[in-house]
Amino acid sequence: MAFAIEAVELRRVALPLVSPFRASFGTESLRDVLLVRVCTAGGEGWGECVARSEPLYSPEFVDAAVLVARDHLVPRVWAVERPEDVARLLAPVKGHPMAKGAVEMAVLDAWLRAEGLPLVVYLGGVRDRVDVGVSVGIASSIDALVTTVAGYVDAGYRRVKLKIEPGWDVEPVGAVRAQFPELWLQVDANGAYTLEDSAVFAALDGFGLLMIEQPFGDDDLGAHTTLARRLATPICLDESITSAARAAEAVDRGACSIVNVKAGRVGGYREAKAVHDVCLERRVPVWCGGMLETGLGRAANVALAALEGFTYPADLSASDRYFTKDLTRPFVLEGSQLAVPTGPGIGVEPEPDALEAFTTATIELRP
Ligand code: NPQ
Ligand code: MG
Fold first, then answer.
1. What is the CA radius of gyration of the chain?
2. Counting Cβ atoms within 10 Å, is residue 14 exposed (0-12), middle (13-18) or buried (19+)?
3. Which of 30, 161, 252, 296 could potentially form a cystine with 135 if both were Cys, beta carbons 3.0 to 4.6 Å apart?
4. What percent helix, strand, coil does the chain show, rounded to 5?
């Protein structure tokens, strides 16, 4: 039977976080998520939009993602027959990569399930389990931070990422480093600094960090190149990398030597694979970023992280790092790894009770 979409549901869910998560741009205690459910005669597929409720990580936010999906994206994909065509059909709509990525993921999941093909196989993954780390938010005190990190190390995480911002950088990172001299440690500024802060980076350079992620603003590749030349620690870009072409440009300009890959940030899993491919060609290591996804987005990310070039641990933790109850069966840490789902499509589905309990709104769309 040919692939044909019969209906699309836009479903908003809200999952309480086990503890508030603070980055340089703000704090989150409830994960407000837009899900896209594609229904076909042969079954359904799920997509997850990684936008946050406020436009602080990127210009996208959940209310806007709902509107653009309802009025501009879903109407363009009714007749789609293959997941490879989604990005081209959505290209006339400017921006909104996270909303586009969610629509593509839902079509991809439905199509792969109909084909009986796991996402990891479709993407060309080479691993059946992936190394993961944990991202630790800005804490209320250095003692609290060290205690939190110790808990994650005890849980099995071998790589820790610390969120930093001006005023919360050299001291907390130094304290964690003093307590855990061998830990794989890295930091993420979410663009909160400028080149004026060179003393901070000179000090961080002495801590043997795996990388410094997105120290400066998204658009400032030049400042990243300047800093990269001064430091021994590799610079990794996240927010700046909006496409495979942009990744190639950033690498070729010396703005970064490691790339964080987030499918939502680049408009979907196919573009995310393209980012991986341009980096692999250039021998630049990549790793899979995280946006506090539910089990749906997490499953797809784990499949992506199974590609050959993903050689640093992913920002994908076990479900219990973020949620008391996940939308899917929980992802559980095995050593410092997560197993790649083996079922067709993304390999997981929402548990009906959890889906109902967390739903805050639904919109039904038909061709
Ligand atoms: C990053 N993620 O790498 C992002 C930023 C981030 C795991 O550090 C709610 C939803 C809160 C998404 C906070 C990690 C968030 C969020 C930070 C994403 O830059
Ligand atoms: Mg980041």
1. 20
2. middle
3. 161
4. 40, 25, 35
Which residues are CB-neighbours of 207 under 8 A, at least 6 positions away?
173, 174, 177, 185
Sheet with 235-237: strands ordered across = 134-136, 159-163, 184-188, 212-213, 235-237, 258-261, 286-288
Q: Is the CB of 292 under 6 A from ligand 1?
A: yes
Position 318 pLDDT exceeds 90: yes
Q: Is the pLDDT of residue 329 over 70?
A: yes
Angle at 251 between CA 249 and CA 255, to 5 degrees: 100
135 lines ligand 1 (CB under 6 A): yes
Is-contact 263 271, C-beta < 8 A? yes
pLDDT at residue 1 is higher than 80: no
Choose the residue to mutate in 15, 17, 18, 21 for probing ligand 1, maximizing ligand atoms within 8 Å of C-beta.
21
What is the reported pLDDT for 242?
A: 98
Is 94 marked active-site? no
State residue 176 phi and psi, 5-degree precision. Answer: -65, -45
Separation of 191 CA from ligand 2 center, angstroms?
A: 9
Alpha-carbon distance values, 129 to 284, 302, 314, 328 (Å): 21, 8, 11, 18
Residues 291 and 15: their CA atoms lie apart, in Å, by 13
Q: Residue range 251-258: average pLDDT?
A: 98
CB 70 within 8 A of CB 366: no
Residue range 141-167, pLDDT digits in tens: 999 999 999 999 999 999 999 999 999
CB atoms within 10 A of CB 67: 14
Over residues 255-265, mean pLDDT: 98
How many residues are listed for the chain in this entry? 367
The pLDDT assigned to 343 comes to 98
